[in-house]
Amino acid sequence: MSTRQDEVTAAPPRESHARQFGAGFVVKLLLMMAVNAFGIAAILSAWNAGAWAVLGGLVAFLLLADVIYFSRRMLPLKYLYPGLVFLLVFQVFAMAYTAYIATTNYGAGHNGSKEQAVEAALIQAETEVEGSPTYPLTVVRDGDTLGFAVNDDGTVRVGTEDQPLEDAPDATVGDNGAPSEVPGWEVVPRGDLLSDQALAQDVIDLRVPISDEADDGSLRTREGATAKIYRSSLDWDPEADTLTNTDTDVVYSPNDRGTFVGDDGSTLPTGWYVGVGLDNFSRAVTDAEIRAPLFKVTAWTFAFALLTVVTSFLLGLLFALIFNDDRIKGKKTLRTLFILPYAFPAFMSALLWRGMLNPEFGIINKFFFFGADISWLQDPWLARFAVLFVNLWLSYPYWFLVCTGALQSLSSETTEAARIDGASGWRLFRSITFPLLLVSTAPLAIASFAFNFNNFTIIYMLTGGGPNFDDTTLPLGATDILISAIYEISGVAGGRADFGLASALAVFVFVVVGVISALAFRQTRKLEEF
Amino acid sequence: MATENPAPAAARRQPTRRSRWWREVGWKYPVAVIVLFYAAFPLVFVLSASLNERGSLSGAQGLFSSVSLVNYQALGETSYWTWVGNTLIVCFAAAFGAVLMGAAAAYAFSRFRFNGRRTSLTSLLILQMFPQTLAFMAIFLLLLALGEVVPALGLDSKIALISIYLGGALGANTFLMYGFFNTIPAEMDEAAKIDGATHAQIYWRLIIPIVTPILAVTGLIQFIGSFGDFILSRIVLVSEENWTLAVGMYQWVSEQLTANWGLFAAGTVIAAVPVLALFLALQRYIVGGLTAGSVKG
């Protein structure tokens, strides 16, 4: 992948005639050397990691880069390529990949390959072996590799995750029975485990095999001072493609939904992701648990986007009509002050309003409602109103600016002609000014609708989508719009992850946005300008 | 007018003229005060809260009831300045890269006639309509895979976040600049070409100096766009020392709204003032750009 800064700057400075060895050519050569060095390093790394898809992409992008920049032809591509690479990887591919995820059951319990699922199942089924001896333990390290050194009846034995236990004859045992010095290893002081949370977690996760035989189990520790033998109650049979519980003799075999199902009907918690076709889409419209809240969210998304555009357009238009008047002194200053909310970073405004609307301490209740205890963001309808109100505050300046500009560019001849015909005041506005204004602002209104349709920031920062619906297990609420619902269902911020369903919803939003854009196209006929 | 009229007539007309002035213009001043109050009240409030020494939402009783800088000093004990640094790095790099790539693409579209030019422009126009943020799950998985190979492009890396922002750069910026590039007469290029200049020399020495204003505006729009992004930075930047302001300040307010209020207010004032100043100074250009690219609104 040539995704790096040098590549970005690599685009323009080059000469098409390689026979001229000017300064530009040297710069180009140096940049291409850097790109190639990085690309080849990344390709080797991909080879080592066995990441074949990434490897293929890297090779293709690097070859293309060399062909484009060292050939005399393909002039336009020399200027387009760096941007195209980023566009293809982080936008086009990301969108296509979203569509792919929508056809899988990727999510909690299904987030890896089958091999990973088997490994996780084996680890989860691990329990302390009954009657296991307790070994005095010292944690040792060699660079970044952590290991266990245990005192096995007077013999010190050392091992790591990949290296089963072996005798360490020259080690010494301390007063507490645990090894105190192990040649070739650095002893990790017990105090470090208490002070370093990450290290303590690594030690708790570490399992050191007793021997090459997996059935012998492995050593684990809970506190870093003693180790016990743990063994998995599951046994993986690669030939039969089954996991067998050695305690209960239940045999688990894989099903086509990426889950191991036992012959007694029970399932294992870890699965892997598989294609499920259009299941996520049909689940969204048939599963009552999902359908009802999703319908409310979708309806609110449309209402929110539409009402925001209408209210902020009308308010902005009203202000523009009032203050587009040369007789007002200080018009410019006023205009600058009026658009303050728009210049203020949106996420900060939303968080600010969240505090101001706090029922207990918020200044809105205190100043304007005489200290009443109005739960602006906790009651479903009040929260919806508050979201619209805050978004009105955020977006009216945009329409104020747009309408002011549009009003100023209206031809005075038309209005003069209407005046001569006897139209004035309201009639003039209704029949002449407003329709003309609508024509010039309609494309912007459509764009604004599309923007607010996906206005994640205002919703998430102000209400977090809440107050939550109480008739569903999905983490959705009364002010959730589709994109915040997708965010919450996907579980990236915590909670149960369902990437499949979330991606299916994202595809739905893509379609809606596509339709809106098509409408916008018709309106603007922008294509004709090319 | 008044000076031309004889005094008695002026005296008689005074009340009617006055009331006419009130009816047509005068009433707009009180309305302006109301609008001003509506627009600026939250901002005045956050300034007052940032200066309140009690530092909590419950303590902020009246506006400017106390004036002290304790909240600003307290920011030094948090990760705030680290986040400011991260935000600046990410936003500047994204804006710089986006401007470079957008300008190069606009130059190609504006000056070269090649096969697929129309199709490419149309596809770009369509692509830019789809918000990149919606693909955050795919981006998350993509970074997981890339991080295995190149850690700098994996999760919790600022470079990865910048790259993601650059992915949206071509669609968003090319059109704004394309129109501007088209206004530069092609005869200038022709003349330079006849003098023996290469296409790279024309681009760097001739075109770029002329289009600097639009480059600045595009960069600023991109900067504000990345500054306000939450969803992508939240997913990519995992550890606290890598967070941007949007992620960090959301964390403050979402967890301990009342307790962290003074910190939030002070942090907001510091971060918003430069953005506010830049925006207002360049409002003429930005509004033109926004109506063309529609980043926000």
From TrEMBL, chain A:
Keywords: Cell membrane, Membrane, Sugar transport, Transmembrane, Transmembrane helix, Transport
Main location: membrane
Highest taxon, organism lineage: Bacteria
Pfam families (alphabetical): BPD_transp_1 (PF00528), TM_PBP2_N (PF16296)
Keyword Transcription: no
UniProt region (Disordered), positions on chain: 159-180
SUPFAM superfamilies, alphabetized: MalF N-terminal region-like, MetI-like
Classification via PROSITE patterns: ABC_TM1 (PS50928)
Family: Belongs to the binding-protein-dependent transport system permease family. MalFG subfamily.
Entry protein name: Maltose/maltodextrin transport system permease protein
Automatic annotation (TrEMBL), chain B:
Transmembrane annotation, as ranges: 27-49, 87-109, 121-147, 159-181, 202-224, 261-282
PROSITE patterns per the UniProt record, alphabetical: ABC_TM1 (PS50928)
Pfam families: BPD_transp_1
Domain called ABC transmembrane type-1: residue spans: 84-282
Keywords linked to the UniProt accession: Cell membrane, Membrane, Sugar transport, Transmembrane, Transmembrane helix, Transport
Protein location: Cell membrane
Principal location class: membrane
CDD domains linked: TM_PBP2 (cd06261)
Mode of membrane association: Multi-pass membrane protein
SUPFAM superfamilies, per the entry: MetI-like
Homology family: Belongs to the binding-protein-dependent transport system permease family. MalFG subfamily.
Name under which the protein is recorded: Sugar ABC transporter permease
Source species: Demequina litoralis
